[in-house]
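Researcher: Structure for this, please.
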Amino acid sequence: MQTPPDWTTTDEEHLLHCRVFDVHKANAISPRTGAAHSFFRIVAGDWVNVIPITADDKVVMVQQYRHGSRDVTLEIPGGMVDPGETPEQAGARELREETGYAASVLEFIGKVNPNPALFGNHCHTFLARDARQVDEIRNEGAEETHVVTVPLAAISDVVRRGEITHALVVTAFHWLALQRE
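Model: Predicted structure, token format:
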């Protein structure tokens, strides 16, 4: 199968800095027509998701208010990879901060681009087996998470019922299902 050729970016302008991302406008030339087009890109650092599973096969999840959707969501712990961190280090940090849980090993199970039409970053997903509570939740700033545990065997039904709507969380559970095949 032949793949389409890359476009040629002629210039890119930084339009807006937000705390967790930047907005850029890129001008590029179509390889098919030679015409110039403008595109907008959201430039952000990589993200992580962690599926923490306890010794008794429960998934440690967080409930938190999300301002984009303006409702409380059910998610797995996750967040941004800070400068100087590896995705695995960020996953361990986010797991502990948002839940108070830790695991001795985080196993990488997959990565995706959240939306290649707009983003260039990736979300790395890790599995944390035998997760155990070792600390209190350490919410800082504007973050407030509440921990709930869900039996691993019930996750598919929870997704089907629409109780998990975060696309990257659904994707993380898909990575877990592929790993178990």
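Researcher: Any notable elements?
Model: The CA atoms of residues 82 and 90 lie 7 Å apart. Residues 47-180 form a domain with the Nucleoside Triphosphate Pyrophosphohydrolase fold (CATH 3.90.79.10).
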